[in-house]
Amino acid sequence: MILYALRRLVQAIPLFLGVLFLMFLLLQLTPGSPIQAIVGRYPVPPEYRRIIVQEYHLDQSLPERFVYWLWNMLHGNLGYSFGSHTAVTSLIFSALPNTLLLVVCGTILSMVVGIFLGFLPMLIRGRFVDGAVSMGVITGFAIPTFWMGQILIVVFALKLKLFPVSGMSPLYGAASGFGGILQRLQYLTLPVLALSIPALANITRVQQQSALETLGNDYIVTAELKGLSGGQIVRRHVLRNSLLPVITVIGYSFGTSMAGTILIERVFGWPGIGNLLILSITRRTNQTIIALTMMAAAIIIVVNLVTDLIYGALDPRIRVT
Amino acid sequence: MAIDEAPIAEALALEGVAGSRYTQGGAGSAEETYTPPGRMQGVLSWIRRFFRTQFGIAAVVLIGALTLMALLAPVISPYIPGDIAGPALAPPFGHFVFGTDAIGADVLSTFIYGARVSLLVGACSGLIALVLGSVFGGLAGYLGGATDAVLMRIAELFMVVPTLILAVVMVALLGENLVYIIVIISLSLWPQEARIARSQFLTLRERDFVQGARVHGFRWPHIVFKEILPNAIAPVIVQVSLDAGSAILLYSGLAFLGLGDPALPSWGTMLTNAQSYLTTDPWLSVFPGIGILLAVLSFNFLGHAMNEVMNPRSPRVSALSLGRRMATRLVAPTGIIEPTLSEPLIERSSP
Fold it and tell me: Angle at CA B60, nearest 5°, toward B56 and B61?
């Protein structure tokens, strides 16, 4: 197990370096001077431009520049945002927890509901349930989440007045303690619902397929020959064994949700890294854009690593290959 | 595995079985004896089966309607999109069927013109992803070894950063021009196609008919383009159709963030403009959203229909009562049924 974990870790590191290289390549392709590419089209003082040239060794050759760029990035030197007059790192760390709250809640919701929906055709046999779930999955993949967010706002916040329209907490009179948690949940509900749709569709599909494939195994035949009833087989054998493949898509779902927050945070005015990204795009502060992308990639690589390890811990066969 | 020389020797050993199909014609040159068995008939029956699926009919109707709408936009739209046509924010289902927006432009006209950019982005990105994916995936699967390892690492790199983030960053840094955006979207989609093409090439290059063609002395262009590619391409095309849907979703997301081509009316931009009027005029966001949903759905239907035609044995719960499955098991002993080539698909979800 330790060997397996180490091997996975070693595989993840070049992947992250690759993402860094991709970002560097993108900066080279950006129109304008290299200084402008790093700083963006935001007006910054000339002293800062000199600092940039010095820090990133922009007067050197391309490979050397990459090494210095890598050096800066790996040391957490992500630059200074003149749009907000703060260091990019502190900008990110103030917005990141809000986004993670949204994404983690969305992933948990889509997992619980997705596993249930995907398994539903096993519990209630028949053409109707199976068809309804499959159709729901196809539609779920096709719904634009940001549009769904707008519709949810119109129906549940504006017409029925059940939830707040936007933001993360009331502008004044925020409750504390248990009331505060309830209030936060109220603000969370609609964005999480809209955000979780694609991940929900994905997990449902995988669970549905995996349950079907489990039915084809020999131990199901054995269980049947033993005289177990259909319900017993489904509960005892199919459910537990079909849960394994779902774990592999959690990391992927987390990634899609992470990307989806960019749109959802815009719709709901959620103060997370998605809104920060849009702000830095309109302000053309490229350092923040690059830093945010790398942060997102790093988080996704870590989540993928963790799901791989969980999968390896649960299923010994994975560790061998 | 050292694949490049070994198959010839392996195939020679198999000649009694595999070579027989190719040597039936006797003396003549290899090109003359080898005729692909009834390709036209295959295509015809394929189309017939395609139209027998519900998804197939739905896909053709939807895509046909959207394409007509996009092509005939100047003819059927009542006003010029973006031009002031009446009072601002007029409600729908009156003189203006979809109402008017904040500056008084007809929403229906903008909606009709919006179909153009969506379909264009979907089709072009899908095609580029098809070419990129089959070239790189095919190379990786056919050559194996170091080429495979390097190409697949690159594909993995593009897959670890979610498509939407990648597209947003690239468009933000490189510029909001439609050609750029299409290239960027296909750059973030191709790894999926490459993965499928790779696994197809990987299994097919070991098949008897490919070995047979090798034994016959065909060079690699013939083997790759005439033998493997026609058999490998089907699942890739299914994925392309699903990814055309993803491309439409991606583009509307980009347009929603203000990163679409500013010169072209699009459904995503309409939704951005609607965002400010949610409290007073919620209908503004209803129609463009339905447009996106239908466009994406139509390509997903297309993919599902093609998958159903090519993988008729993909299981459905409704057909599986435990008892009946037992019966089929006993009738069909394992080993006779060939494993289906294509793994059932849809690996990518929407952004």
Answer: 115
Q: Are B171 and B180 in contact (CB under 8 A)?
A: yes
- A37, A138, A144: residue with CB nearest B292: A144
- The interface predicted TM-score of the complex, written ipTM, equals 0.88
Subunit contact A150:B285, Cβ cutoff 8 A: yes
Alpha helix stretches (DSSP H) within A269-320 = 273-283, 286-314, 316-320
By the 8 A CB rule, do B27 and B76 touch?
no
CA distance A261 to B240: 25
In tens digits, what is the pLDDT along chain A, a chain of 321 residues?
A: 788 888 888 888 888 888 888 888 888 888 777 777 777 777 777 887 777 777 777 777 778 878 887 887 777 777 777 777 778 888 888 889 999 999 999 999 999 999 999 988 888 877 788 888 988 999 999 999 999 999 999 999 888 888 888 777 776 666 677 777 888 888 889 999 999 999 999 999 999 888 888 888 888 888 888 888 878 888 888 888 888 888 888 888 888 888 899 999 999 999 999 989 988 888 878 888 888 888 888 898 898 888 888 888 887 777 765
- Residues in A touching B168 (Cβ below 8 Å): 262, 277, 281
Token pair of A188, please? Answer: 């969370």
Are A37 and B173 a contacting pair at CB < 8 A?
yes
Distance CA B52, CA B300 (A): 17
DSSP assignments along A250-282, one per residue:
HHHHHHHHHHHHHHHHHHHT--SHHHHHHHHHH
Structure letter (DSSP) for residue B319: G
Long-range interactions of A154-157: CB distance < 8 A, separation 24+: A154/B278, A154/B282, A154/B285, A156/A190, A157/A190
Q: Is A147 on the interface with B (CB under 8 A)?
A: yes
Residue of A nearest to B286 (CA): A151
CB-based contact A238:A122 (threshold 8 Å): yes
First to last CA, chain A: 12
Q: What pTM was computed for the model? A: 0.83
Output the six-digit token pair for B154. 């690159």
The partner residues of A87 in beta bridges, in order of sequence, read A80
Interface of A with B in 181-210 (CB under 8 A): 198-199, 201-202, 205, 208-209
Residue B282 and residue B233: Cα distance in Å, rounded?
A: 45
Question: Which B residues, 7 through 36, put their C-beta within 8 Å of a C-beta on chain A?
Answer: none
Alpha helices for B96-144 (secondary structure H) = 107-143
The answer to whether A17 faces chain B, any CB pair under 8 Å, is no
